[in-house]
Amino acid sequence: MDIKINENKLIELFVEIDELLKAYDNYLREKGLLGGLRPTRVPRLNASEVCTVLVAYHYAGYKCFEYYYRQVILGVHADCFPEAPGYEAFLGYVARAAMPLYLWLFHTACKAQRTGLYFIDSKKLEVCHLRRERSHRVFKGIAAKGKSSTGWFYGLKLHLVINNLGEVASFLLTPGNVADNNKGVLRYLLSPLKGTCVGDKGYFTSLFGWFYENGLELVKRPKKNMKALPVRPWKNRLINMRPVIESVFDILGTVCDIDHTRHRKPENALSHILAGLLAYQKLKDKPKVFFPSITKEMGEEKRLLMAA
């Protein structure tokens, strides 16, 4: 996919991450947490520039990072990165960008609109073929064998919560054997949110009451072997709209390129996964759903409950 990224977009990405990192450094300095030894060698690219390169790669839709770096960063946009090292040297910078990228993604997730309507699901990230599980060494002790709706796999699992506008509101990366309805995972993902969250049948948990008391209602599709319970019509329509998060996962895999098995370091893999999520956050056209009638029905139901 030959999608070009213009110079204005590079500047926009750089300014955003650079201001964030400067504010973070000032905060650590005020708290007395920015101390210790300083590196004696200054890298040719600072953290903001490295993060900009990684996010721009996933945003542009390329499938080969080496080709993108040599042809675009060192070629088309050489004026934007005059001190950029060669490709092999740049690979040494990727692992160090994981922490700034996480800070950047966490910041953008916190800025996502709190619409009160959310969708939750998980995506498998295979690191190798299942038959090479025992001989795989790169993610040894990190990845695990798990099972999804499409079968067994060996790798990681990306847990994601989006709002109805398609923005990432919460995220978590775990080994592949962590269940979707794991209590620790759900508390981390959903505790800051209020309103209604829709999931599939894998999200049955004993935490429904706890979340409801904290202002969040979990709506899920019932399992086939469960007794049918009366469900409000607006909840059924919400459940039918849940595939919107599948569209988000499709974009993350096909356009933002977070799903491949060519990593040689787990730190580099983490940096690229975070950069891919950030690239998705920067897309203008995200999958979204609007349901004003449902919002009205939800408000009417809450009003009746409060009156009772």
Q: Can you tell me about this structure?
A:
It is a single chain. This protein has helices at 7-30, 47-60, 65-76, 87-94, 98-111, 183-190, 208-213, 233-240, 244-254, 266-281, 292-307, and strands spanning 117-128, 144-148, 151-163, 168-175, 195-199, 216-220. It is of the alpha/beta class. A hairpin with a 2-residue loop joins strand 2 and strand 3. The chain is globular, with a radius of gyration of 21 Å. The termini are far apart.
Concise synopsis of the structure shown:
About 45% of the residues lie in helices and about 15% in strands. The protein is built from 11 helices and 6 strands.
List its traits.
308 residues, alpha/beta, 6-stranded mixed sheet, 11 helices, 6 strands, 44% helix, 16% strand, disordered C terminus
Number of strands: 6
Largest sheet data: 6 strands, mixed
Beta content: 15-25%
* Helix and strand element order: HHHHHEEEEHEHEHHHH
Give the N-terminus to C-terminus distance in angstroms.
57 Å
The multimeric state of the shown protein is single chain
As a whole number of angstroms, the C-alpha radius of gyration is: 21 Å
Task: Tell me, rounded to a whole number, the average pLDDT.
Answer: 86
State the low-pLDDT regions, or none. Answer: 304-308
Sheet/helix structural class: alpha/beta
Q: What would the principal axes of the Cα set say about the shape?
A: globular
Determine the number of helices (DSSP H or I, runs of at least 4 residues): 11
Percent range of helical residues: 40-55%
